[in-house]
Specification:
3 helices; 46% strand
Length: 198
């Protein structure tokens, strides 16, 4: 045998033995991991989860008595009391039977699932497919009767400019065909069509 063949024969034995030696040192030198220490929750968060039932990323959908489609999602939802559920990072999509879409966002809120009602609070944003984008501190919804009401002031943009009002209500007419936005308690509309064209 020449020198090259002898080298190849020795390498066929030495390389696998070296690989086995390296793998065995990985297991021998590895540190022990405490399974309790690796849980990615703070003590306070664990206590909150143990105190009440909590659901991550819940999603609810349904249809009102007048045929409007409603879907609600949240970041987390926990039991607040016997009737209400407290939620964070709320998003509600309402597809009215007339074809209009209303989207609601808020930081927090409470839901009474038995009665189809909710209270949204904290950076509430109301957007409609008809061109309105409004902000409010609080929003009360009744999905059974399909009404959305802001008990406090709202401000934002409308079809023809900026809009401010002391109160806003989205409700259906008596015949139940179309829903209308009704602004009351000191309505201020600034007509700015050039902003809408941009």
């Amino acid at each position: 045998m020449d020198g090259y063949s002898k080298l190849v024969a020795w390498l066929k034995v030495l390389l696998p033995l070296t690989a086995l030696g390296l793998l065995s040192t990985l297991f021998l030198l590895s540190r022990n991991i405490d399974p309790v220490a690796s849980i990615p929750f703070a003590d306070t968060e664990i206590q909150e989860r143990l105190r009440g039932q909590q659901v991550t990323a819940p999603f609810y959908s349904g249809t009102s008595s007048s045929g409007d489609r409603i879907s609600v999602s949240a970041g987390t939802m926990a039991t607040a009391n016997d009737q209400n559920n407290a939620a964070t990072d709320l998003a509600a999509h309402i597809d009215l039977s007339s074809g209009t879409r209303v989207v609601l966002f808020s930081d927090t809120g409470e839901f009474d699932l038995a009665h189809g009602a909710s209270s949204l609070a904290g950076n509430v944003v109301i957007t409609t497919s008809t061109g309105y984008k409004l902000n409010s501190d609080e929003l009360l919804t009744d999905f059974e009767n399909m009404t959305v009401r802001s008990p406090g002031p709202v401000a934002g943009t409308g079809l023809s400019g900026t809009l401010e009002a002391g109160q806003m209500t989205l409700e259906k007419t008596d015949n139940g065909e179309n829903a209308h936005l009704i602004f009351t308690k000191g309505v201020k509309l600034v007509y700015r069509p050039e902003e809408l064209e941009e």
